[in-house]
Amino acid sequence: MIVRSLHELTDTDRETRSETWVSRRFLLKEDGMGFSLHDTIIHAGTTTEMHYQNHLEAVYCIEGKGTLKDLTNNQEFAIEAGTMYALSGNEHHILIAEDQMRMVCVFNPPLTGPETHDENGVYPLLE
Ligand code: 9YT
User: Which residue has the higher pLDDT, 65 or 124?
Assistant: First the structure.
């Protein structure tokens, strides 16, 4: 059994920051669950371009609102608390946060810990 509280992740190597978000990683590959689970804050007024070519990600918004642009399929979605999106086709996308957004994110395969976006918004596959 694994039990963790968000405050235990603060200022540890399970907290990863970029210019537009901070990701607190409850579960990582080393935890052996087959997925990773993150509590991610997207800062208000920011735009983040992402393209997870090596991972599938599901994102459940629990606070805030913004716009998701699917650049692969030329579609746009309003995202608010209570909305989930799943990048089932590794879609290239942009998230525009109107307010601060809080997201519960699941990655398959799991992240190993320190991943942050490269210049193309991609997470590398780390062993
Ligand atoms: C919503 C989103 O994908 N934000 C980028 C951070 C990522 N979800 C993470 O590593 O938690």
Answer: 65
